[in-house]
Amino acid sequence: MTVFAYRLELPLVFRIFDIMLVEGMDVMLRIAFAIIKRSEAIILGMGFDEVLQYLKRGILDEYNEDHKKLVQDIYSVKLSSRKLNAYTTEHERHVAKAIQESLELNNLQVLQKQMMEHVRHLETKLASLNREHVELANELVSTRVEVTHRQEQNELYRQELSELSKALDVIPLEIERRSREKLDTLMEENNKLANDNAILEDKLASLEMTVIDLKMRFAESENDKEMVQRRLREMKKYMAVHT
């Protein structure tokens, strides 16, 4: 009623009061429906912000020019109890749907909060993984540098091994040549030693014969010595007797 008193002329306000006294407070719904139905075409052609401004200021201006229009529009609206119940049911359904959507929205907000926490956790984990990635990248670079250095060393070792292999291929031939030379030298020395040994054996045999001869002569000289000594003793005895 305050809206009507504020926006409509006083005689029209009195007409609305008269209708309310006759029909009761339920007529307020018919009045609102009649006003919106009158401006249906205008409202459908407006945007949302324009509709809000129109509902605040312009929707009742048409009735100030012709008071009978509002009364006619009110009584042209037929709202039976069945329709009101249907509208009530529809309204309750929309309210229940709105409540359900509100609950779903709350659940979504809770889920969003959980997801945000999960995202922050993932961001923290991602930052940690990025740090680990940087460390691994640095380690990989160091490893590659070391691998390159090792490859260069391996190449040097391969070259040295190749040279050693070539040297080893030559060494057996050189060893065989030197061994043959040394063997020939040893054989010559052995032959010489064999000849010298034969000569020494001949000399030894000659010396043994000489030693045997000397021993025989020594034995003979010992016998002669013993005979001389015996004769000397006999002569001493003889001289001792005849003295």
Could you give a quick summary of the protein structure above?
The chain has 243 residues and is mainly α. The protein is 93% helix and 0% strand.
CATH architecture descriptor of the domain at 2-79: Orthogonal Bundle
Tell me the CATH topology of the domain at 2-79. Cyclin A, domain 1
Main sheet makeup: none
Structural class: mainly alpha
Radius of gyration: 73 Å
First-to-last CA distance: 209 Å
How is the secondary structure organized here?
Layout: H1 2-7, H2 10-23, H3 27-38, H4 40-44, H5 48-58, H6 61-65, H7 67-76, H8 81-242
Helix pairs in contact: 3-7
Descriptive key words:
rod-shaped; 243 residues; single chain; Cyclin A, domain 1
Structure description:
The protein is mainly α. The longest helix is centred in the middle third of the chain and has 162 residues, at 81-242. It has helices spanning 2-7, 10-23, 27-38, 40-44, 48-58, 61-65, 67-76, 81-242. It contains eight helices and no strands. The mean pLDDT is 81. α3 packs across α7 (67-76). It has a domain at 2-79: Orthogonal Bundle (Cyclin A, domain 1), CATH 1.10.472.80. It is 93% helix and 0% strand.
